[in-house]
Amino acid sequence: MGGSPVFPAGSLFSALTRNWWVVLLFGLLAVVFGVLTLMSPVRTAALLAWWLGVMAVVEGVVVLVGLVSGAAPVSRGWAVFYALVSIAFGVLAILNPLATASVLLLFLAGWLIVGGIYRIVFAIRVRKHIRGEWMLVLSGLLAVALGVMFALNPLSGLMVTSLWIGALALVYGVLQVIAAFRLRALKA
């Protein structure tokens, strides 16, 4: 049994080998993003501020929906406070990401601390109904610790975060390019 493996015509793998160039394109885009991020971490931070803003608004809305539907496992006051903090942070970041990026880690630090405390309270309240609540407590503690570290040195945190994202995108992109050429070789 020599030669290339044969896969059914409609399989996902067959589709990937036919369209290997899509994987290559994603890889090249990730490499470009990684290089640009490493060259301009502050600009990347502005983009990150915008994305974090979108995520914060979504999370705030989800908490409000849970509150309205009566599904919030914490007190109404705490749920409203957390939702409003998330939405306020999100709106600021979406409307002016460049200005937000300059103080990104200070906003993020506050959001992480509030969010970490929220997760801890949530885990304590639902501990009789779920397993593994310690993971929620741990994630809350880590969020609080990260928030405190970012608050103590926001500029360093901003640069390091952007540089890590750039490096990871670069590695991801290179791996995608390698995978694309391996898929292309299987097609031949």
TrEMBL record:
The keyword Glycoprotein does not apply. It holds the Pfam family DUF308. The chain crosses the membrane at residues 20-42, 48-70, 77-95, 101-122, 134-152, 158-181. Keywords: Membrane, Transmembrane, Transmembrane helix. The keyword Transmembrane helix applies. Signal peptide: none annotated. This is DUF308 domain-containing protein.
